[in-house]
Amino acid sequence: MSSNVTPIPVTDDEDLGTEAILFALPDPVMVLDDKGYVRFVNPATEQFFGAGRAYICSRTLSELVHFDSPLNALANQVREQQISVSEHGVELSTPRTGSQHVDMQGVPLSERPGWVLINLQRRSMAETMDRQLNHQGAARSVTGMAAVLAHEIKNPLSGIRGAAQLIEQNVRSDDRDLTRLICDETDRICAIVDEMDKFSDERALERGAVNIHEVLDHIRRLGENGFAKNMRFVARYDPSLPPVLGNRDKLLQALLNLVKNAAEAIGNEGGGEITLGTAYRQGVRVAVPGSRDRVNLPLEVSIQDNGKGISEELRQHLFEAFVTNKPGGTGLGLPLVAKTVRDHGGIIEFETQPKKTVFRIRLPMCPPGTPFDAVDEELT
Ligand SMILES: Nc1ncnc2c1ncn2[C@@H]1O[C@H](COP(=O)(O)OP(=O)(O)O)[C@@H](O)[C@H]1O
Ligand SMILES: [Mg+2]
Question: What does pTM read for this prediction?
């Protein structure tokens, strides 16, 4: 910026040790020994973990982060293979400071076999929010609760509903509205519980080859004849897209949720447009948590709308359960989408501004020869 900066003379000043430099760095730097114990941290690392140096340096890395944390996997890979490894756009959770979006680098320390130097770079908040949302954990929070609710709430509810129906036969006609109300509301709660129950299904997905264009066309027809009658659908497909490795019914449900949200964001305003897109993108690889594997996710499916955009206060919690700003909304649509994408080993991300909101899902490709996943018409 300024042209008259005085060059700093090179110094061999003994006092300006490496440690002083590392301490001044705004990014976390840490050194692990061959057993995985943390042997050095700078203040930025203390801040990152929300813990002091004494606490951190008496522990192994796997005690500081979850055992299946990508940071652990990275450190192990560097140690075992004696190579430098870097990973971009990773969500790291620590018990005290929660989830942070970082780039990570690991380097072997040549003079000490098995020792690893780790450097983290925090991504900006905007990137965390808008670019790479891999909501692996979002759906999990609902899972346990849903199973309990399904049993503990539905049984008493059916009792209440039955009693209201009995009373209905003996009350004056103007009180009948009230008994109807009880029935309708209990039905509504049952529907929510059923919706939540889908989260407790932790079985591995049955997957086959899915023609995603057929699925999108099906959703478009549902929209045109029902929930999005007054809107225009645009199909922007890559016709040569190979099949997705997936479960057709689950993918259909998830994409339908996204398209319904798009239609609801547009509302009754004229000129509503929903664009269904597919694309083949090479080079989108993500780390598999807890392993050294990276999977390729070249198939992109996007749903874009020109509605009002996602409000600022919802963005951060969008994929969490019960986050909604619609009267009568459940806030369970997007968490279910996140679960489906997670079950497929894919990722979901979104960007939003007024008149342009895009949800993008990236999915794996089929190994050649995978049979097609059967169409279950009942669901649709
Ligand atoms: N395409 C979109 N445009 C604007 N807001 C959206 C969009 N998709 C989702 N949202 C916001 O996210 C919230 C949560 O969506 P979802 O989980 O499907 O629950 P619900 O549709 O029941 O409200 C919605 O209430 C809405 O505010
Ligand atoms: Mg919804």
Answer: 0.62
